[in-house]
């Protein structure tokens, strides 16, 4: 056996250099992510309890940032993602944001007989109810559903979806834009269908408002947790409605008719990382039709040649496009993108 041949030696050297480079680039990458995490923590005023949490969050942050950066690095996407406030959250911590919906659209007692927007004389090419002054500020449902650091799930999206639609029709009918109370629904509309932070029903909430009226946001402010109903607050009627109607399911043309006349409550499947980190542009999925989240359509239009629904979410203005998302409209499926045309309802006044 002689000395290793020159060739083996060169090969070994190459392998050694490759390993070193990889280690270096991995640690450069880790340092980059870690620094990004530090800056992000400052930006979002996030404080962790200890090093173990920093490490656990750091791992989630890295995984999600890599997902977001890789998504954004592809060209030809109609929308972008952002490293937003959700990037260091566990799946469980995010659940209260997307799982508050309860299915009541098809319940016998809730099906309305008529659909008054079957025929609408003039449906404009685009509509933005914000420009008509019929939409209040974007609100934040928060982690309603989180109880003493234990996540119990579900959430209060249903209350926000209901209230935004009622705020819309109130402005249209009375000329007054009044921010109304989600907390009253969370605390006072308690039954099998609406259970506070354990989830609720938008249709059932319209029924509640018919009977009880609704206070203002300031009169019964949002707490992001369910409490006992305050009777005095409940008794203060700032607005009311006469009933609600359902938009016939799975028909985006009829949904358009309705949205051309007023903001409409809808349920969607928001269970994807793409939705969670959505930043701007026309969202095209991926998503299915597992309806677990309630939002409100407050307009529609066309952007860069793509038709969209303008959707008001309740994750505060620091999510999406100042709290809104443009969701693709007139897709090749009757139920609409993410099931948006499946369970649309609107209040009447
Ligand atoms: C919130 O409401 C649910 C359902 O009624 C109840 O189980 C839970 O104990 C309530 N939580 C608080 C803090 O009141
Ligand atoms: C939607 O409803 C309209 C009016 O009832 C009807 O003419 C049209 O065929 C429906 N479209 C679909 C896809 O069902
Ligand atoms: C629907 O989404 C919820 C919330 O993420 C999840 O718990 C449930 O398993 C999903 N259901 C189906 C049928 O995918």
UniProtKB/TrEMBL annotation:
Q: Which GO terms describe its molecular function?
A: cysteine-type peptidase activity
Instruction: Report the leader peptide range.
Output: 1-25
Q: Which domain of life, per UniProt? A: Eukaryota
Residue ranges constituting the Peptidase C1A papain C-terminal domain according to the UniProt record: 123-348
CDD domains attached to this UniProt entry: Peptidase_C1A
Q: Where is the Cathepsin propeptide inhibitor domain?
A: 37-94
Pfam families assigned:
Inhibitor_I29, Peptidase_C1
Query: Which key words are in the record?
Result: Disulfide bond, Hydrolase, Protease, Signal, Thiol protease
InterPro entries this protein is in?
A: Papain-like_cys_pep_sf, Pept_asp_AS, Peptidase_C1A, Peptidase_C1A_C, Peptidase_C1A_papain-like, Prot_inhib_I29
**Any keyword Transcription regulation?**
no
Q: Which GO terms of type biological process are on file?
A: proteolysis
What's this protein's family per the entry?
A: Belongs to the peptidase C1 family.
Q: What is this protein called?
A: Uncharacterized protein
